[in-house]
Amino acid sequence: MKAEIVTPKKSIAEYKQYDKFLLAVDCIIFGFDGEQLKALFIKRAFEPGLGKWSLMGGFVKHEEGVEEAAQRILNQLTGLSNIYMEQLSCFGEVDRDPGGRVVSIAYFALINITDYGDELMKEHNAKWFDLKKVPNLIFDHKKMVTLAKERLQQKVANHPIGFALLPYKFTLRQLQSLYEAIYETTIDKRNFTRKILDIGILNKLDEKEKESSKKGSFYYVFDEKKYRQLDKEGMKLI
Amino acid sequence: MKAEIVTPKKSIAEYKQYDKFLLAVDCIIFGFDGEQLKALFIKRAFEPGLGKWSLMGGFVKHEEGVEEAAQRILNQLTGLSNIYMEQLSCFGEVDRDPGGRVVSIAYFALINITDYGDELMKEHNAKWFDLKKVPNLIFDHKKMVTLAKERLQQKVANHPIGFALLPYKFTLRQLQSLYEAIYETTIDKRNFTRKILDIGILNKLDEKEKESSKKGSFYYVFDEKKYRQLDKEGMKLI
DNA sequence: ACAAAAGTGTTGTCTGTACACCCATGC
DNA sequence: GCATGGGTGTACAGACAACACTTTTGT
């Protein structure tokens, strides 16, 4: 009836009896090159798995939160801050890392692919891979990538996070290409335009993009204020 | 250009330089009493937080995977195995547990409320709480519960996991009540019946439930085979 | 006979989808 | 003047939401 009968009281000191673990953060970084959805992998510079492709990652430090750690690692490797980032899942199989018992918390991040400079690319031996052509990755990283892609698809259907993958201003065609890449499908131009504009989170600029067509297509920007009004419940985007 | 230039090689031994953490598992256990969606909390039997309401939890052991740990803890506390369980999120704020730096992986689980016996209830000082009347919980457990409820709502819209909250055979009214409780809404009886039967994962029995009405209402059972055919993509349930 | 819950169909509205032509411009 | 991608409207079909009466049976 009372707790004392069965479960012995324990003091804070007794936390010490429990096992401790190395905690890693691994980041699936998505980018979009205008045609394909890409992920960023690095050639691993240390054992185990030296020379193999791997997600960007690092170890959590004692004095930082797990979320902070992910931000720090993303920042270290991309030079970017305020990256859109979301926790994916925690991977804790006993043998997932041959180098030791490491529990990894996977995050996925969305960046504008042009923000990631060549210097950092070379410095970290990083490379963008088409998501349809993911190379062999160490440990359980491929599982992480697969899961991340699924989550991105789910999320992007109801939340306009996809904009994080595009430049500040973009055309409706670029946005459509992005959704087509994420869902590996084709979308009718008219239906897409109507739906996305009806949501009311895009502002049309006077300016046109003139690279990819003679007529030129209008730039739009994402309207964060209008977005915030709608965000809470999620909106139907696709 | 090559990894060696910038990043020094590291040996496995160097994993040792990184910090280690206590890893906990906390479980949000949902149940349904026919009217309300409930969650199971226990009165904590040790410090910190002795005597306060808390989620069921425990520490991960070195020789087990995180998922295994969650199953073990659920089994210890409920006596049940093969519980429907899903990882929710990892909580890793530095100060989340005043007893030490503990990173917690939250799982949510669905059980048939009648499977959880009185003895275990007393043994662990556990109690079912209406989800609309969650008591104060230790640490960040309330955040976990809130998130778990949101995830349950999302998940249940496309996957028939709700059946895990019901007995083997149930009436359409019970099933409807469950959905009404999960979404805190009311549903039209005719629309609900039509939709759920159209999906084709329920089998009608000849038997009637006679407790709650004079006419009696037919029992149905969940058809796992039919379900598996549809599962992959998820189905629209609500 | 009546109270209490079970069961069952139809209609209007909305949402999604399919589909084709003209427009503006650079070459 | 023609080739290229940009922009726009309509019609049909399926999904969803609103709505009320009859059935069964225990008391």
Characterise the protein shown here.
2 copies of one chain form a homodimer. Chain A folds into 2 domains: 19-156, Nucleoside Triphosphate Pyrophosphohydrolase, CATH 3.90.79.10; 163-231, Winged helix-like DNA-binding domain superfamily/Winged helix DNA-binding domain (Arc Repressor Mutant, subunit A), CATH 1.10.10.10. Chain A is built from 7 helices and 10 strands. Chain A has helices at 3-6, 66-78, 118-123, 141-158, 172-183, 189-199, 224-231; strands at residues 20-32, 37-43, 53-54, 56-59, 84-91, 102-110, 126-130, 169-171, 202-209, 217-222. Strand 1 (20-32) of chain A pairs antiparallel with strand 1 of chain B. The structure holds a DNA duplex (27 and 27 nucleotides).
Give the topology, please.
Two copies of one chain form a homodimer.
Chain A lengths: L2 H4 L13 E13 L4 E7 L9 E2 L1 E4 L6 H13 L5 E8 L10 E9 L7 H6 L2 E5 L10 H18 L10 E3 H12 L5 H11 L2 E8 L7 E6 L1 H8 L7
Parallel strand pairs in A: 1-6
Antiparallel strand pairs in A: 1-2, 1-4, 2-3, 2-7, 5-6, 8-10, 9-10
Chain B binds a DNA duplex (27 and 27 nucleotides) through helix 6.
CATH homology-level superfamily of the largest domain in chain A: Nucleoside Triphosphate Pyrophosphohydrolase
What is the CATH class designation of the largest domain in chain A? Alpha Beta
Sheet of most strands of chain A = 7 strands, mixed
Q: How many strand segments of chain A?
A: 10
Q: β content of chain A, as a range?
A: 25-35%
Assembly state of the chains shown: homodimer
Question: Largest interface, with Cβ-Cβ < 8 Å?
Answer: A-B, 54 and 54 residues
Helix fraction bin of chain A: 25-40%
Structural class of chain A: alpha+beta
Based on the coordinates given, report the CATH architecture of the largest domain in chain A: Alpha-Beta Complex
Question: Total helix count of chain A?
Answer: 7
Radius of gyration from the alpha-carbon trace of chain A, in angstroms: 21 Å
Compute the separation of the termini of chain A in Å. Answer: 53 Å
